[in-house]
Write a structure and sequence with these properties.
The complex is a heterodimer of chains A (264) and B (221). With 264 residues, chain A is mainly alpha-helical. Helix content of chain A is 42%, strand content 7%. Helix content of chain B is 43%, strand content 0%. Chain B contains 10 helices and no strands. Chain B starts with a helix and ends in an 8-residue tail after the last helix. Classes of the chains: A mainly alpha (264), B mainly alpha (221).
Chain lengths: 264, 221
Amino acid sequence: MNKLLKLVTLGVLGSSLTISAHAEEASVKDYRAMLEDSPGEFWVDDGEELFHAKAGPKNVSLEKCDLGKGPGVVEGVYAELPKYFKDTDKVMDLESRLMHCMITLQGKDKDTIIKNAFSNPKKGKDSEMEKIVAYVAAQSNGDKFNLTLSHPKEMASYKTGEALFWRRSGSMDFSCATCHAADGKRIRLQTLYNAYNDKTTIPSWPTYRVSKSTVRTMQNRMWDCHWQMRLPDVDFGSKATIDLITFMTKESNGGEIHVPSIKR
Amino acid sequence: MKKSTVKTWLATSTTVAMVMLSGISSGYATEIKGAAFDAETLKSAEQTVNESWTRSTPEERKRLVQDYSNKVCSAYKNKPTPELAAKIKQFNKELISYPQEGIQLGDWKNGAKLASSGYGMRIGKIKPDTGKKPNGGNCYACHALAPNEPAAGNLGPSLTGYGKRGTSDAMVKYTYEKIYNAHAFYACSGMPRFGVHNVLTSKQIADIMAFLMDPKSPVNQ
């Protein structure tokens, strides 16, 4: 399907969904069948351009960014993230690593990157991060998540991540485990994924969210669930988010990556 | 713990919020022997929390501070030993306060609205609640209530037909206390402590109680 035709289909899709606010899973399957690919493919295409384009005060591209397999390598990197990076002496996920490259290689400003990390289509606010993440992650499509935790800091990140997953606080006394540690649970009609028994959900992120008309990344989901928990906005790319992502991704080891998927 | 002691404990834990975030207090160290996580991991989690909300205000960060109950429940993955469970329930009983006019059933129609609404208490810069609407109890997120509302979650048991248990003083008191602080009856319950955190006022709790217990309420039809 060419881009224009896809866009037209998408417009129809968008408006029919606003009508049924409670889009259920069956209907999402119908939409999926209607489309050859996830609409997120646009983000992948744009992300590819952005990745190779010269940008920032230093006017360089991200082609020298080392995402774990050497400068410029994008194929298969997502399947091994988060991982330990020697140059920062830290475990980093895809998004915090990309931010690191934007700062060190391109000379971009951290606050500005963070401010623009999440798009807001309703307000016409775009996000380059969402596009670049979609592009890089999609270069691992068909690969299986394979976190080895061979570095001590990776193991520590996993363990801390699990402790954070169970850490209750806030006005609702929630922890992630309140909602994501058992099979067959729902909040209202929304099915909740079980972090301990699921190999398809984490490998489906980043995802095109029909209800938001944009691609959302795992960092965004970390913000969203903390917001739902009535906790303050968790810092983009913070250690808490990375440790949680290490924990959840390791639990999904063996799950095959298919992104950007399409979701409610 | 006496109520006054609990109050002091809570007050202290708020004023020294950042200290509490950075480590496990010595009194608590004995509690976590045999917990699901070792002391080192729990300490790392606290340090991580401490460094991961740097863009929030100190006022907002108070939400991240755990009280005794949440600390122990988290360390034990919500399965405390029987001794700790008893302590947690006692700790939570003492957090319950009662309306001066006594516990009464309110207006079930308003209770129905509150049971449906998940509004309130969300903070941050990105999408905070404005406080223009009253906080909701969001009971439907976790419980089936009126049988004509299919969009009910299943984290908690079904409460359809709850009113069949009657409206004796004991049932009215239990229901009030359960909504105010579910953890006083069930250590480490998944249910939020709506009264403890001032999510719901005692008048709102009375309205929700009527929704559960009034024979005319759809919950009991």
